[in-house]
């Protein structure tokens, strides 16, 4: 009798009952230098906790020193300054996480990240700077914050590039930090600032050696300038072409990662924390049908296969932090039982417990069918999830391993009232 998908899951899945069970995952990761850890939502506590435990093991046992996340560079850099001891202003990780003051703040300003950041600070305390682990943001959204960082830094050191930076800043000033207003002006009326930000980025890269003055200031300057250039492209394209803006964003994240690796050296090891939709290879989903790429795909394409390891995450039911629409206050929402026939439903059918599944050359054919795989964003309506929250996927090609949390719980935010969109 031919085995069913649930038969194959039951045969190959391994219970995940204790953090020590993750040792097997670390063993499977082998000598990979880029490990991508996904999440099926931006508001599930267990995803953050398990990624933290995996990261701790990789840092301690395999020498990983870079955590790169789906967050803004300026805010994440404040966490790095705290955990590496560059800045004594912060009394605690929770204090440093106050820098995440742009919606959705709960993604990084939460108890789970605070606990992990305190562990990182303690781990770093006895190490030389080059061996300390940092926490870096790869995302493209921080146009205004990155612009301020660039101007402030160049002004502080009295750089001759300051005038170019001020010119770019002046170009954006009429839009009053309003991304949508800038997007319309740039895309429809051709009143954008692409020339200014491109010139600035080119000049900063040309004068790279002038900005290596310790505490990663030069790296921060280059990435913030890169954010300015790519954020301008992102907002200019988002009005007219969603697919293009998605690709600009994910390619920016890859480019920002390259800046980090160039700074620390090609032998550096990095752990990436992002949503499954970014880390799970887009070629194994319906994203490829409309020309959409993602971080996981590009990193696999540009690196030796043995150097890259991708872990997806999912849950059958529980609670999650999300919002009804973009920019409004977060709330705890119920995650209903997974849709019948979905990947999460199949994982649950084999037993209502947490488990890991590893894909390899021998078992990949057993998990080669296209199946719906749940994805929850910062905006989420459980009543309508069957109409847009399941991504058709070939799971064995999308990931190298999968972690299933059967019943999950909402993230624990530090800030209940969002202060700026």
UniProtKB/TrEMBL annotation:
Signal sequence range: none
Keywords: Methyltransferase, Transferase
GO BP terms in the entry: methylation; response to antibiotic
Keyword check for Transferase: yes
This protein's record includes keyword Methyltransferase: yes
MF term (GO), any: methyltransferase activity
InterPro entries: Emycin_Estase, Hydrolase/PRTase-associated, UCP036794_erythomycin
Protein name, as recorded: Protein-L-isoaspartate O-methyltransferase
């Amino acid at each position: 009798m031919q085995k069913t998908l649930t038969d194959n899951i039951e045969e190959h899945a391994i219970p995940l009952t204790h953090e020590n069970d993750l040792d097997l995952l670390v063993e499977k990761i082998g000598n990979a230098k880029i490990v991508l850890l996904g999440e099926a939502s931006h508001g599930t506590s267990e995803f953050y906790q398990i990624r933290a435990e995996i990261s701790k093991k990789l840092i301690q046992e395999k020498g990983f020193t870079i955590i790169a996340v789906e967050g803004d560079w300026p805010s994440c850099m404040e966490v790095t300054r705290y955990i590496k001891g560059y800045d004594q202003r912060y009394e605690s990780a929770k204090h440093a996480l106050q820098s995440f003051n742009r919606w959705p703040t709960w993604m990084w300003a939460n108890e789970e990240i605070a606990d992990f950041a305190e562990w990182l600070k303690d781990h770093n305390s006895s190490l030389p700077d080059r061996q300390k682990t940092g926490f870096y943001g790869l995302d493209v959204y921080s146009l205004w914050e990155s612009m301020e960082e660039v101007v402030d830094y160049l002004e502080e050191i009295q750089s001759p590039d300051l005038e170019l930076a001020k010119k770019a800043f002046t170009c954006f000033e009429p839009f009053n930090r309003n991304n949508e207003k800038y997007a319309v002006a740039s895309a429809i009326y051709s009143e954008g600032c692409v020339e200014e930000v491109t010139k600035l980025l080119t000049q900063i890269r040309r004068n790279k050696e002038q900005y290596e003055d310790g505490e990663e200031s030069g790296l921060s300057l280059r990435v913030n300038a890169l954010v300015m250039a790519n954020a301008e492209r992102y907002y200019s394209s988002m009005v007219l072409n969603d697919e293009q803006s998605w690709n600009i964003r994910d390619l920016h994240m890859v480019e920002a990662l390259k800046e980090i690796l160039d700074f620390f050296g090609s032998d550096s090891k990095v752990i990436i924390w992002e949503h499954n939709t970014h880390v799970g290879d887009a070629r194994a989903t319906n994203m490829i049908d409309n020309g959409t790429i993602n971080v996981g795909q590009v990193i696999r394409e540009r690196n030796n296969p043995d150097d890259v390891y991708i872990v997806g995450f999912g849950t059958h039911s529980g609670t999650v932090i999300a919002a009804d629409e973009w920019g409004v206050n977060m709330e705890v929402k119920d995650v209903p039982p997974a849709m019948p026939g979905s990947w999460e439903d199949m994982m649950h059918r084999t037993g209502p417990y947490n488990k890991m599944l590893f894909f390899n050359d021998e078992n990949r054919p057993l998990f080669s069918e296209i199946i719906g795989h749940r994805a929850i964003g910062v905006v989420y309506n459980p009543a309508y999830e069957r109409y847009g929250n399941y991504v058709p996927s070939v799971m064995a090609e999308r990931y190298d391993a999968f972690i299933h949390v059967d019943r999950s719980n909402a993230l624990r935010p530090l800030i209940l009232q969002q202060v700026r969109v």
